[in-house]
Sequence to fold (738 residues):
Amino acid sequence: MFSQRLVFSALLGCASLFAALPAQAQQPAKAGKPNAEQARWQAMAQRVTIMRDKWGIPHVFGKTDADAVFGLLYAQAEDDFNRVELNYINALGRLAEVEGEKELWRDLRMKMFITPQDMQAKYAASPAWLKKLMVAFSDGLNFYLHTHPEVKPKLISHFEPWMALAFSEGSIGGDIESIDLKQLEKMYGSGAAVKLADADAGSGFGPEPRGSNGFAIAPKRSASGHALLLINPHTSFYFRPEVHMVSEEGLNAYGAVTWGQFFVYQGFNERAGWMHTSGGGDVIDEYLETVVEKDGRFFYKYGAEQRPMRAVPITLPYKTATGMASKTVTAYFTHHGPVVREAGGKWVSVKLMEEPLKALTQSYTRTKATGYKQFYKSMELRTNSSNNTVYADADGTIAYFHGNFVPKRDPSFDWAHAVDGANPATEWRGLHDVKDTIILKNPASGYILNTNNWPFAAAGADSPRQKDYAAYMWTLPENARGLHAIKVLQDAQGFTLDSLVAAAYDSYLTAFEPLVPALVKDWEALPENDPQKAQLAAQVAALRGWDLRFSVTSVPTALAVYWGQQMVAGASAAARAKEIPVVDYIGSSITAQERLQALARASDKLAADFGTWQTPWGEINRFQRISGAVDQQYDDSKPSYPVAFTSANWGSLASFGMVAKQKTKRIYGDRGNSFVAVVEFGPRLRAKSILAGGQSADPASKHFSDQAEMYSKGQFKDVLFYKADIEASLERKYHPGK
Fold:
């Protein structure tokens, strides 16, 4: 359950609760001799060289890994300190101190799992090599603030090494973000009506898909005889910048880094590459707790026992118009985890992975793996709870890991729903070994794919078999992108970087394969005197003649997408009730009249917004970046670029969807393709990439939108991986602080 990931990432600490520590004030620099901390920063800065290429991409070179980490965080702060800080404000459960009372429940959710005291203890217990990296992480950010006094942090004016453990895994959303905030508020908010068991009782528009595409191509299917990898995360735009970090200790990682973290999350080194897609196995479980109250205390049933609930007061500071205020909430815990909601007279607790130290270790060490054996060893830490991994390397190996953190459980229980917390048989029984999870290595098919779909079509006839695995090892069904990926991969040969890009941007919209013929049949079945027959004749003719391919000039694409939106809006509640993906539901469960009426509404909306339903898709679907704010705003009167590819809901492999509330007539994408790369692992690595908009969050920078037009057209730039190539396209070379 909880397979969907939301915004912001946070790996988890222990379940003891304390208020977040106040940020330590950054001492202003004084004239004269620097203090010991400043002297350390300056010495490290001299060992680091940042080379900005013609796209503004930072290539950070350091003598040691710690040097490279220091430079990487400094460079990130240069590009977007706001997002760096915001990620840690959120991860530490302190967002209400900046945004106000509306974020109290988000902060409570974080503080149920993460405490500074616990992170500090884990930092103290860390191996020396990792401590050095965490110190370098905080030093890089603090040196940036020291050398940029004009930058005013919202809250965190001094970063501490242990903070890296609060944000130790780079997914689009950590496991904790799956806990529903409305249910949490209902459970703990003032005046909430929380039900208890009797003391004597016995035992609208469908959301934009959050995910990614990963393809690995074996040497026998490539033109060069080398393995290829597609790295195609679908995230909120500007969630990760493009970076390169190099040391003399074997580090040489290039790719996307989540703001504020010190490891490349999705990327490659000279010999191996990795791509994460969300939606692996069931890694979070809910337990229905039978709770009774006795003498002012709460107890929960477990086997033949009644165990005392642990009650922990949590202080939640928040910003008001007149200053700071705070609220204290008493949170309850069983041995499974915190209680997060109530359901049918039961309290519901949540159990999930809580291994921040191992997670940070795995996140970093995989970036230095130079072959499958080393990469597999990092996977044996089993703390990549949020993701699947598609892998390729210079030895010609391609591989797939469906999930990584997979608790052993009794398969007779329905783990897709809350289980009985009173039954000891529902306990986790350790973790599955990596070899016992759903994995693939060098399938005979010569390709591997994942699109946040099930693993049983990952490699054609050589895919894993569903009957061989417990149901809790996979959570998501096949999807329209998965069917599309099969079409472009199963028979293709002679892949190059360019043809892999072409496959990743193929224009076919698989989801409409069953929908359009059904609509045509519905229309043909109408009596001649039915008003819809004439009203919809031209629209049905346009869709009947459509090749199901998107383009900026395509009128049927616009009509089909608006029609699909109308069907989804009408069916979302029913699909949720049946626990069926809404696009699958509209393909199988709505009526002929619902399809026809949705087409009429779509036509009316297009005509109202654009003057006619016969509006080309590129006039509607646009890329626009007009500010560096996290909460992007859009304006129909300001410049933008037409984009052909659509929401991933419709099977578009290249994803471009709008999650923000639409206040404009045009659609402005804010989620989907963000950082995309293709890599060839030959004797000399070759790669191409594209980034939504550009590297910098500063609208005054030429790198704010220098990739925007290329992005909108699916055009890639050459990755500058080798130092000589970087030097040949160099914009600036400097030490941090200079």
